[in-house]
Write the structure tokens for this entry.
Amino acid sequence: MRAILVQDYGDPDVMRLEDGVPDPEAGPGQVVVRIHAAGVNPVDTYIRAGNYGRDRSLPYTPGIDGAGIVESVGDGVTNAAPGQRVYVAGSITGTYAEKTLCDASQVHALPEQVSFSQGAGVWVPYGTAYQALVHRAQGRPGETVLVHGATGGVGTAAVQIAAALGFTVIGTGGTDHGRAMVREQGAHHVFDHHDPDYQQKIKDVTPDGRGVDVILEMLANVNLGHDLTLLASKGRTVVIGSRGRVEIDPRDTMARDAAILGMSLMNATTDEVARIHAALGKGLADGSLCPIVGQEMPLVEAPEAHRQVLDSGAFGKIVLLP
């Protein structure tokens, strides 16, 4: 089969499309999925660059997200069958390939109305958004949530999830096109984060100007200090992404009894993962969750996809097509 291989850690060009990679075979409790689309996430780039540790055996195939058709199953597998449409939530051998080997717990039914490219944008974006809003922030329907950076994969997922759960949703985006998309996904208010007055405008649309209850923050090194001034009493900021250090005034947390919460989807417990998939499965089936595909690219363009996924003004999900 064809697959992307990383021979050594480094810049995007260390990824090469190789022919003749051995097909995976399903052992007990395992599933082979023929990949129709693979999702590209910022975390993929951090792993490739060696910034998430260098404990992987080289060469390796990148990719956590994907969607396709079950090709074969090993002994003891009861939740998947050959021919079934599935989305992949992690894999043993990586998803930037024509086929991937998964533990049975990593494959989940993909409703017929959800395309494979959309399915490749489910686990990391939607799982991260749900973990941040529901499990880490303990968000409650009726609260106000600010999705800071609402046009990317996690951002659009967060807007859809928050709207479906009954939050008042505020989103930010850097382009007219992106902001229009955020409104279409259910945000009640959308602001341009390039506007020098956008922070005051956010506060002004909250009840009595009290501030927001939850902030989902994609770029904490730029925004965290300002976020703390936007929180209501007992407000929570969940740090989903950051690309450097930041200086804050701790008194902004003290005045509000505010909390700064870090999160990584990789830290979700087994019970949390099960609850996430139950919620995502229901949302995909009833249409309240609908992944936005920003761009489809052939597998050979994986290096360019890794460059683009880190660009500012991200729009929806980038997927690779084997």
